[in-house]
Amino acid sequence: MKAYIGLFLITALAACAGNTSHESQHQGDSAMAVAPEEVQYDTALVANRRDPVCRMPIKAGIYDTAHYQGAVLGFCSSACKDSFLLKPATYTLVMK
Fold it and tell me: Which of 13, 20, 63, 73 has its CA 20 to 30 A from that of 3?
């Protein structure tokens, strides 16, 4: 019985040690995948003080930008930027 358990453990360990492609694939994916919300921009680079869509203060974080009427605007998310770009005239800009 002990021989069977020992043989099973050796086989299991050998199988796990030989299967590193699955683990390395996940490590490579996580190293390369950067969500857009993880990239932050410097607040000094934008002309507005508040996100024009949700009104969140820009000092809380800028995760996307857009050029509009010769100025760079900061947005808290890509969703806010996309909403703004659909109908920019409907939003009030609070400039610095």
Answer: 20
